[in-house]
């Protein structure tokens, strides 16, 4: 939708999580908005990311239970149908029709900048006042000889596998490698994770260790601090030579070694839009690029690569762009790795100073975990010396749900005493957060000054009660 001059208020490049939210936010406040998508609206999350991977994990868990009960092998065609059905159920919300209904004009094609205020889509010119780059990121391909072979898949192509690979080598031990590695192991693959760092390197080490133990219990071989030096074809599959001298063979190699921002061919140079050393678009806290009329959000930027981050940042960018607001992004970003056990975290994972408090509740003390026989987990809260909550790490079932409360607490500078004072339902996994907050409050009550005040109150109360009793007797 353009005005009489043919100029649009906001041109959005890319129709994934960031582009969709950005475009609908702008159109929602009445801005003339055009979204250009070169492929399918919905982006990575819908087609090759969150939706298929979470469905695969659920299908794998079910298949494992069924196999234990009946001895039946998992049916991969059924798993693929479940994935297709989940995508089909969510897809309408991300469709061009939904965009048009929200007042966004949708154009299919590849967009690129030509000059300030001018872009083209497959040769057709679009003039714009502001633009939002939301072109996402693609799987990073490390420089390993032989990696381009036919048995190598990425998060974009793994969904087309015709059958469950008998032997799967996964390069990378971030959320992607752990989630898909565990899912395929539960479907029957013999899985090896090859990780140049430690597993889940951004997470609390105790939490990552629990996930590692669980993956190993599923039969996964976890090789840390090593990397693939060379891949050569064998029949069938590949032979992988690792730096530490290990040699292994695999039918399929899954690349899960991070992502590379999609900026090639966008014409950033025509608008002086800068990227960092990793090729990610540089933005300020308002999500503005180095060009004051161009904004960016989602995986194409240097921010954590999650759907919720893409959406929130795009919404902020769109409102700043079309309304001239000064909204800034929040540094409080939760993340969840949907392995079994689930690992959720927000804010600080380590005490930032010697006076910060770490309160850990092992899930042997969370009754719901006891009744469910899922006590291999913990809830860890980090608070400053006054009790303000700085971070949390939770490992266990529904950790992603439980962490949401801590997100709100950090955003609003709440203290452990605020969480402790709020009644939580029993028995739930959120008891872990509650119990950790209560443990912190109790520990603070034992501090000498507080303990002295409490003692005085107790003595006063006792004296007063005795006095009242004596008066009544008279
Ligand atoms: C296997 C996997 C599992 C994941 N699981 C989770 C999860 O559980 N939770 C979570 O929060 N995140 C998850 N993520 C991350 C999440 O998918 C991304 O953070 C999110 O999709 C980023 O959205 P985006 O809009 O920035 O990019 P994208 O979704 O990649 O969208 C960008 C769009 O731009 C289009 N495009 C590119 N160039 C152009 C151009 N020149 N012109 C027009 N269009 C263009 C592309 O075709 C694409 O549709 C997962 C990722 C993967 C790979
Ligand atoms: N649950 C979720 O939210 C979820 C799930 C999957 C993916 N994602 C997102 O998708 C993106 C991609 O995920 P990812 O796990 O690939 O990325 P990542 O950057 O989180 O992890 C990459 C992993 O690969 C390892 N690695 C990198 N190069 C290597 C090499 N040459 N050899 C061996 N190991 C190597 C790293 O040490 C690290 O363990 C991430 O940004 C993530 O946020 C999110």
TrEMBL record:
Per UniProt, residues of the FAD/NAD(P)-binding domain are 9-311
Provide the alphabetized UniProt keywords.
Disulfide bond, FAD, Flavoprotein, NAD, NADP, Nucleotide-binding, Oxidoreductase, Redox-active center
GO molecular function per UniProt: flavin adenine dinucleotide binding; NAD(P)H dehydrogenase (quinone) activity; oxidoreductase activity, acting on a sulfur group of donors, NAD(P) as acceptor
A Pfam family of the record is: Pyr_redox_dim
Report the record's disulfide bonds: 45-50
Which residues are listed as membrane-spanning?
A: none
User: Which cofactors does this gene product need?
Assistant: FAD
Q: Which InterPro entries match?
A: FAD/NAD-bd_sf, FAD/NAD-binding_dom, FAD/NAD-linked_Rdtase_dimer_sf, Pyr_nuc-diS_OxRdtase, Pyr_nucl-diS_OxRdtase_dimer, Pyr_OxRdtase_I_AS
Q: How is the cofactor bound?
A: Binds 1 FAD per subunit.
Residues noted as binding NAD(+) in the record, renumbered to the chain:
172-179, 258
Q: Which residues bind FAD?
A: 54, 299
Q: Where is the Pyridine nucleotide-disulphide oxidoreductase dimerisation domain?
A: 333-436
The record ties this protein, via PANTHER family, to: MERCURIC REDUCTASE
What protein family does this chain belong to? Answer: Belongs to the class-I pyridine nucleotide-disulfide oxidoreductase family.
Protein name per its UniProtKB record: FAD-dependent oxidoreductase
Give the organism the record lists: Pseudarthrobacter psychrotolerans
Q: From which lineage does this chain's organism come?
A: Bacteria, Bacillati, Actinomycetota, Actinomycetes, Micrococcales
